[in-house]
Amino acid sequence: MAAPVLRYFDCRSRGQAIRFVFAWHDIAFEDLRVPVESLGELRDRVRDGREPELPFGTLPWLRWDDVALGETLAIAGYLEARLGPTRTPAERARLDMVCSATHLDMQAPYRELFWKPDTHPEPALRAVARGLLDHLLRRLQQLESLAGDTPFFGGASPAVADLFVYESIDRARTVFGDAFEQTLRRTPQMLALADAIDAHAHIAACHREARVPYPVTASPSERALRERLPELLEESRE
């Protein structure tokens, strides 16, 4: 069988959780990373009909054997069906719910934070950052209320949905540092889930070997905005 091919931008956004799924299962895959600076060029290629393999003209895109898919949640569902154990319809629906809520509600809001000019006024940027931290806490608390008596939503080992939860937590840890750790400690089961996945040899190797991209989004202002966050968040606690 041919190795899977994942095509996505060289950032976290909608693709990193999928990369973590392959890493957890120790599946070698072709990680085609499109430079974030090429976003405009890709849009031009889609508009001109030069990207026929992209069903909706967007990334991520996955090809594995004779299956080709776009859209993050469709890819997540396919990977769960292919890599996970046999589950009842109710079990599958519950995992889909966790995956969808995590992807849509804990990842997409970063656009509001980083797709701003790097000269965005400090009070406004601080308010957006604190608002996102509060939002993440609410979502983590909701996930905590759904957690059962097993280590992961998938049971004794992570399902694809657990890797999506992990990616959202790892992303927030990277972006917000200590400010998010204080939030995370308020949801001990989610903290334990993230730490267990983080300690797994294949996931740890992703971080150790710098295979997790720094950018969260394709915004040209992100790096400058992120450099301002620690001081702004520290000021907000004073």
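(the above was protein one; protein two follows)
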Amino acid sequence: MLKKILMLLPVLLLAGCTTGQFTRLTPNQQPRNANNLYPVETSFDSQQQSLRWDSIKAYVVVNGQPYALRQVPVVKNRWEGLVPVPAGVKSVSYRFKFDYLYNVFGGPPKPNSEASKTFILKVAD
């Protein structure tokens, strides 16, 4: 019996270690505007059943600086925000970062974080 449990242990441990899926919903290029702020949007999905969706704090990170994203009303799992691109700068790198809590057996929720790959936003003059 113990042997069977030990054989299943790696499968059980991996089952709880799923990562989220980010989908960028923003075009790669946007026309330059007067306020130098450019909208970005993402969707986030996760198969992690213990994730507490109501605890998500979402950010877009540009040059190490986080800017808060807000959840899109009515649309499930979508967030939007603004990325600053200074005048004269043609592109910036950014990524999405989500901090959240997840439930654990026999204890209080624990913090975790997911980050997307890096994206490039080009600004056309």
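Reviewer note on protein two: The longest strand covers residues 91-104.
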